[in-house]
């Protein structure tokens, strides 16, 4: 009888729990998302949090004052009614209540919306249900930058317009599209650049980038959808070649006058970290040399544009990578927070506006990943930082005066947390390898949860047979550095059997694949392949993110060399497992991961039998200046490094099956990489498979991504699994 019951239960499990479909490799993240709150945040100056209803039509509230009971704060209908009153004659079509809101006061929040003809930033009062402030600009505009005095600077193509009280003025009118004003796409958005315009505190002056690309050659990208194919030129400065010239302009609204900040020679430099001093008398700019190994942080006069002084400098034998604008201390305009990894980890330092270092606010080996802001007294800074060898993200708070840091969240995992205005509570959302999602209110003194708002069940239970995911720690090829890895076991795993392996790799900077959050950071394609009978393995090698500068800079001038050495330590780990079929190891990666995949297939041809390389860098001399020269220097300065890492002459070593995939519209890793590799394979007499997505750029998106994953899975099944 017992055996019969057990068999029945197993059959029952099989009938309900299924495998992911190939479609769910793309749709699964939404379909199987753990229960959560949408847009949760603290309401300003209150003990309340707000979030959206599950149908996205209401703004809800839970408050400590009523035992955290759910109430409706305002509705989509009320919001729409307020729009009709404030904007007569304009038509808005809202599918949901606004997702992105920012509380300005206890009663008002700001958000951005669009009608059929204009875009607006508005302030809405949840008490009176009225729009209390609005400023708009044309629907054809982009990259809006709003001032404190209710004006907005925006872009029309490559030029800047300013709209204020229904009046729009032209700030620039360059007809040559190679002169680009105010855009955030400067220096290819490296160096932390996320905007191209900055208002001073009073809204009287606008600073903006002026990018001159006239000296950069046109790079052809072909649009295949026309009756006759059409060329679309792209400005793409390659390593060692002529780069764009960028200047910083100050525009005075009242007079209409412009001055150029005197950043000096050589013009071949990078301008970043643009920050207005709170009084508006000065503006600060980071000047990074083309070699990217010497940063000067300078102060300039906002009236004349003249250089005032260099506050501090950073030099390195590898690279200097500024990534953050200044954060000024509220109520103390003479002090600011500067973030840098100069001493090993991205941490915070307190400076005066004259360049005097007051205090190192760093804590142990914690890498600051998100500076959240100041507490209600403006004496403490809250931030998210790393822990647990980079696997975790925790909430920290540092006292500016004493420099003392406390960790406010304690459970191991990935936390997204914030502190209430009065500084007594933490809104904490976290997940880890065994916790799909949990949202709680913590007492900031005890750091213990007093109220649990959400405790999500496993979303796969009874629906999908989730493969077992295990986090592992290995030692890097240097013999000392610990590395984080993840192994996903095949469905119905049997340790007595032999399984093929798919290594999923990225390996480049500013990316981390293995994290202590739900599913361990694994993607749905990883899990799909495990369910198809593969061991799926991922390792974050040296050179990847969240472990500090020393961990990353071992790649300097030789991209791929130490990264591959570490990946081979991962392969050694796999080979030590009795269930791994050592004759059936494949690798898949995209972008830098495509470079790593192709490198591993050509440098370790007896180990890797199959590879799929998407959007792969093949030779770093074909890559853009800003990223490429940071890690490799120029081809003129580092010919040995470029030769060593180029894959064009390595294709002769290829033994396994290699599929290259590329988006024909790719403006990041241009198709020249893979085309030249194919040409080299022809000359070397090697068979390489090649597939193009004609209408996609660097990543294949939408439903075509399902097609891509199906192709990759089939390639592994045909050439590795069978």
Automatic annotation (TrEMBL):
One of its GO terms (molecular function) is dipeptidyl-peptidase activity. Keywords: Hydrolase. Residues 528-721 form the Peptidase S9 prolyl oligopeptidase catalytic domain. SUPFAM superfamilies: alpha/beta-Hydrolases (SSF53474), DPP6 N-terminal domain-like (SSF82171). GO terms for biological process: proteolysis. Residues 118-436 form the Dipeptidylpeptidase IV N-terminal domain. This is PET hydrolase. It comes from uncultured Flavobacteriia bacterium. The lineage of its organism: Bacteria, Pseudomonadati, Bacteroidota, Flavobacteriia, environmental samples.
């Amino acid at each position: 009888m017992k055996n019969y019951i057990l068999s029945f239960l197993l059959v029952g499990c099989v009938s309900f729990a299924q495998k992911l479909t190939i479609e769910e490799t793309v749709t699964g993240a939404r379909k199987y998302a753990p229960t959560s709150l949408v847009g949760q945040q603290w309401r300003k100056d209150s003990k309340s949090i707000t979030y959206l209803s599950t149908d996205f039509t209401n703004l809800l509230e839970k408050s400590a004052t009523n035992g955290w009971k759910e109430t409706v704060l305002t509705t989509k209908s009320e919001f729409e009614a307020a729009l009709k009153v404030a904007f007569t004659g304009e038509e808005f079509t809202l599918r949901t209540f606004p997702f992105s809101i920012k509380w300005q006061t206890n009663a008002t929040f700001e958000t951005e919306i669009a009608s059929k003809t204009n875009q607006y930033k508005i302030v809405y009062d949840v008490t009176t249900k009225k729009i209390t402030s609005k400023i708009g600009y044309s629907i054809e505009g982009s990259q809006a930058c709003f001032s404190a005095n209710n004006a907005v600077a925006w872009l029309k193509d490559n030029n800047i317009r300013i709209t204020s009280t229904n009046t729009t003025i032209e700030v620039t009118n360059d007809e040559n599209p190679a002169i680009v004003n105010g855009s955030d796409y400067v220096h290819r958005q490296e160096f932390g650049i996320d905007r191209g315009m900055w208002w001073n505190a009073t809204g009287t002056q606008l600073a903006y980038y002026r990018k001159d690309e006239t000296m950069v050659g046109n790079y052809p990208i072909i649009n295949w959808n026309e009756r006759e194919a059409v060329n679309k030129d792209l400005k793409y400065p390659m390593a060692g070649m002529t780069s764009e010239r960028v200047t910083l302009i100050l525009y005075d609204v009242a007079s209409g006058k412009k001055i150029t900040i005197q950043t000096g020679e050589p013009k071949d430099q990078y301008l970043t970290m643009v920050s207005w001093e709170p009084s508006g008398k000065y503006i600060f700019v980071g000047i990074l040399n083309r070699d990217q190994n010497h940063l000067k942080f300078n102060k300039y006069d906002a009236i004349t544009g003249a250089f005032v002084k260099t506050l501090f400098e950073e030099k390195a034998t590898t690279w200097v990578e500024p990534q953050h604008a200044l954060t000024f201390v509220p109520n103390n305009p003479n002090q600011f927070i500067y973030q840098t990894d100069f001493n090993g980890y991205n941490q915070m330092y307190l400076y005066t506006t004259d360049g005097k270092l007051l205090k190192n606010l760093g804590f142990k080996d914690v890498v600051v990943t998100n500076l959240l802001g100041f507490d209600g007294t403006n004496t403490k800074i809250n931030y998210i930082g790393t822990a647990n060898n980079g696997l975790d993200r925790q909430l920290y708070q540092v006292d500016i005066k004493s420099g003392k840091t406390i960790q406010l969240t304690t459970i191991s995992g990935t936390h997204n947390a914030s502190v209430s205005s009065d500084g007594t509570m933490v809104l904490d959302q976290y997940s880890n390898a065994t916790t799909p999602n949990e949202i709680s209110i913590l007492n900031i003194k005890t750091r213990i949860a007093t109220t649990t708002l959400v405790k999500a069940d496993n979303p796969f239970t009874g629906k999908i047979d989730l493969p077992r995911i295990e986090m592992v720690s290995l030692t890097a090829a240097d013999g000392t550095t610990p590395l984080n890895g993840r192994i996903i076991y095949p469905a119905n795993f049997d340790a007595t059997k032999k399984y093929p392996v798919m290594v999923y790799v990225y390996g480049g900077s500013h990316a981390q694949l293995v994290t202590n959050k739900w599913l361990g950071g694994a993607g749905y394609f990883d899990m799909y392949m495990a369910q198809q009978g593969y061991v799926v393995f991922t390792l974050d090698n040296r050179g990847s993110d969240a472990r500090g500068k020393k961990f990353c800079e071992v790649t300097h001038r030789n991209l791929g060399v130490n990264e591959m050495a570490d990946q081979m330590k991962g392969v050694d780990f796999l080979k030590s497992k009795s269930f791994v079929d050592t004759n059936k190891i494949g690798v898949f990666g995209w972008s830098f991961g495509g470079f790593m995949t192709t490198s591993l297939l050509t440098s370790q041809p007896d180990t890797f039998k199959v590879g799929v390389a998407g959007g792969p860098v093949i030779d770093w001399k074909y890559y853009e200046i800003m990223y490429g020269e940071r890690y490799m220097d120029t081809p003129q300065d580092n010919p040995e490094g470029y030769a060593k890492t180029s894959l064009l002459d390595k294709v002769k070593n290829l033994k396994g099956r290699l599929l290259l995939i590329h988006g024909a519209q790719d403006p990041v890793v241009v198709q020249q990489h893979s085309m030249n590799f194919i040409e080299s394979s022809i000359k070397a007499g090697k068979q390489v498979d090649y597939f193009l997505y004609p209408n996609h750029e660097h990543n294949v998106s939408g439903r075509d991504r399902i097609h891509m994953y199906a192709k990759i899975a089939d390639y592994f099944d045909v050439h590795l699994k069978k």
